[in-house]
Give the backbone structure.
Amino acid sequence: MMDQFITLLPELNKSFLETLIMVAIGLGVALVAGLPLGLLLFVTDRGLFLENKVVKSVTGIIVNLVRSVPFIILLVFLFPFTNFLVGSTTGPVAASVALSVAAIPFYARIVESSARDIDRGVIEAAIACGASPWLIIKDIIFPEIKPGLISGLTITAISLIGYSAMAGAIGGGGIGDLAIRYGYYRYDNFVMFTTVIILIVMVQVIQYAGDFLAKYVKKG
Amino acid sequence: MISIEQLSKVYQTKDRKIIGVDDVTMSVEQGEIFGIVGYSGAGKSSLLRCMNILERPTSGKVVLDGTDLLSLSPKELRTARQSIGMIFQGFHLAMSKTVLENVAFALKASKVGRVERRRRALELLDLVGLSDKADQYPAQLSGGQKQRVSIARSLANDPKVLLCDEATSALDPNTTQSILKLLKKINRELGLTIVLITHEMEVVKEICDRCAVMEEGRIVEEGETYHMFAHPQNDLTKRFIQTVLDFNLPKELLEKSKGTIVHMKFTGELAGESIVSDLLKNYEVSGNILHGKVDYIQNKALGTFVIELTGEDAEVQRAIEHVRQKVEVEVLPHDGSVHHSVAGAE
């Protein structure tokens, strides 16, 4: 068994790295684009200081649109866009295009819902202080939801690991790809179990780290 | 200072209109503490929130120091809001900020520099008696302390006026007293105009110079606090005042009583005792004191005296007439069913 493992090791390393790349890019884009989008969804909501029905509904519809397409279909659907963007439709970087597109609205909704948990009164008090919308977002909303933002990233990362397996199935590489190639096509249970165990450990580590970090930034 | 002209606020729901504030015209003078009393749903909170345009009035004007707040651009309105402090029933502190940061936030809103923010915030915390809590989080504070923090925050930009939205309603009686004392102190020392809304007449009695009673979006009575307590006109005002000045004589006592039960109200400088002793000296009646109490409103005494007079009917009548020339007198019925000021109450 040890021999099997050692022969598998180079491939395993490569796949693991590919999964990491996919998840990291997806997560990075989710943070950069999903966070502002989520905040936009929140502050344009009814009764809030940047209430704007048009912006709110258009953004909301786009977010729902992307979220309602099953990931594997989104992946294929985005092939032309991926090809245009990175010049290829295979490999982890290409796969991360679709992963990012899926991650943005996913994370945006998480951001929006954690912002909704803020006591409206706190925002109202900030308005009564004469604070500008930007100051309220930066100095009240953001610090108040920071733990929620981190928990949200944890959830997004774990979902992305799942999605990356699907991306792997159609040429994205990564651990999911490994499991399908060896475990499914070749009935190699050893590889299958190994990949599953690696995925379990990965999810546990991310969850643990996420929880720890969320707790660490929580103040008050 | 603040003048409100024909202000109305209508809430539009899917199937109907709800009138929050109905054509209110009022003004608050520089340096006074003005109270607005009413049951929940009377529109007092809407009215208060219109004063800093947290809610935009449907029609009417809000003028602060000559500036019509409704004519301002968003940016000008933000600047204007910095001169209107506000505190709330639920304190509304940012939980992720320390006490100091919460106060400093208001200064950040007015673009005060970092060093000055810290200095000023510490100064304000000292004013509200919380210097030692600067680095704690709101969750570690009691309700009264949280309200002090929010007072410090509201005072950060040297406001001209402080709006208090049920500021003591979530606090226990002792804490309420200490917060009221603090508000009064701020009012006297900083000359800050205060507008407060409350459903507790006790609060009005304690600190308000003038007050108004609201019902169904309208102001039904308005005047100096002492005058309102001494001579309430409106039934609702009477009911509110009763919550503070109330005395309830046991029903059995009224039923068993053989004499005439007289309720006297002494206002201002009149010394209650001498009138009663004169009465007993000069007329052939005997008196049995059932209740006596003096309330101090705005440092002026308001006395209530209930006495049972026995003697010949004609003499008792003469005695009552005599007293009536000096004070407000009311003869209470014996069945105990009707209390003099309960008229109109449920």
User: Anything to note?
Assistant: Chain B has a mean pLDDT of 89.
